[in-house]
Specification:
By secondary structure, this protein is mainly beta. The protein folds into three domains: 94 residues, no CATH class; 93 residues, Sandwich (Immunoglobulin-like), CATH 2.60.40; 102 residues, Immunoglobulin-like (Sandwich). The chain is built from one helix and 22 strands. Strands 8, 9, 10, 12, 13 and 14 form a six-stranded antiparallel beta sheet that branches. It has a five-stranded mixed beta sheet with strand order 16-22-21-18-19. It has a three-stranded antiparallel beta sheet with strand order 1-2-3, with no helix packed on it.
Length: 318
């Protein structure tokens, strides 16, 4: 139907200050009051008086006085878009709402919580990243960022933390990694409302590759003996680890000196000192020209490889 000046105004919706629909009113005939089609229980509304030249039209958002209406029909919620001096010029439909049902309000926006935990099961090429996520009531997913700097550059596969309100354990696998390298990582959680939480940066270091055993070897042909019968044999160490070994010296088929344990720095060499026993001292004293032919045997121990023998001449140091 149309009122004066041909403006259609057959429906009207009161909107409270909270934005919830208060009542749906209908004007049946020109000049008649607006009657209620459906009103929520105890709705705070006011009956609109008959149309009189555009007066008594409220504005959207106005709060109305108390009145009581009855009726059992389902109200179709409408939203006023504009009100003019001669009536409603437009309105938009919302979803149906049963009489007496409380107005619906938009769900509150929530943000998840994310806490980066320690890395475990760290090997040369992989690590397990751990943390804790609290979805705070909204469906939340998570992943870990990782890399050799705080720019990260890599991330784990996505995991789900659910939509609860309690802390949930988060876990991700980082691989492949470089051996003996320090990595940065952090936990990132994002919910269905596109709210994101980021945990603190943490680091871990992958295991170093195994170092090959060092090898021991003998050098030189002459061993000089001091007046106190101490003589030395030159030994070399090849490898990244310190060498350790044992040494035995024989002459004329007899042991004349022994060292049960000695050390040489990695990739270095040094003189290992021994003391001639009484048999060795006697053999050296009676050797032609005081030059005693001997055989030095060395064996690597405690992870050091190498087992070799070498002929040397022991001479007095003068």
């Amino acid at each position: 139907m149309s009122g004066p000046r041909g403006v259609r105004h057959s429906v009207f919706v009161f909107v409270g200050t909270s934005g919830a629909v208060a009542a749906l009113l209908h004007r049946g005939t020109a000049g008649a009051p607006y009657d209620s089609l459906a009103v929520p229980d105890a709705a705070r509304v006011r009956r609109v008086s008959p149309y009189r030249d555009g007066r008594n039209f409220p504005s959207p958002g106005e709060f109305f006085g108390q009145d009581t209406y009855t009726g059992g029909r389902t109200m179709r919620r409408l939203l006023i878009l504009a009100v003019s001096a001669v009536g409603i010029v437009s309105a938009g439909a919302l979803t149906p709402l049963a009489i007496g049902a409380p107005p619906t309000t938009p769900a509150a926006m929530t943000t998840p919580a994310a806490m980066t935990g320690p890395a475990t099961s760290v090997t040369q090429t992989a690590a397990t990243l751990n943390g804790t996520v609290n979805p705070n009531g909204t469906a939340t997913t998570y992943f870990f960022q990782y890399g050799t700097t705080t720019n990260y550059g890599s991330q784990t596969s996505m995991g789900s933390a659910g939509a609860g309100t309690a802390n949930v354990a988060a876990q991700g696998s980082a691989s492949p990694l470089a051996p003996g390298t320090t990595y940065h990582y952090r936990l990132v959680a994002t919910n269905a409302q596109n709210k994101k939480a980021t945990g603190l940066d943490r680091t871990f270091t992958t295991q170093a590759p195994p170092v090959a055993p060092s090898r021991i070897a003998l050098f030189g042909h002459t061993a000089f003996s001091s007046p106190s019968s101490v003589f030395g044999v030159f030994v070399g160490c090849f490898g990244q680890r310190q060498c350790s070994g044992k040494m035995t010296v024989r002459a004329a088929g007899k042991v004349i000196g022994r060292r049960s344990l000695f050390f040489v720095n990695a990739n270095d060499g040094g003189i290992v000192h021994l003391t001639l026993n009484r048999t060795g001292q006697s053999l050296l004293a009676h050797a032609p020209g005081h030059h005693l032919a001997a055989t030095v045997s060395v064996t690597g121990v405690n992870g050091t490889t190498g087992q070799t023998s070498k002929s040397v001449t022991i001479v007095p140091f003068r």
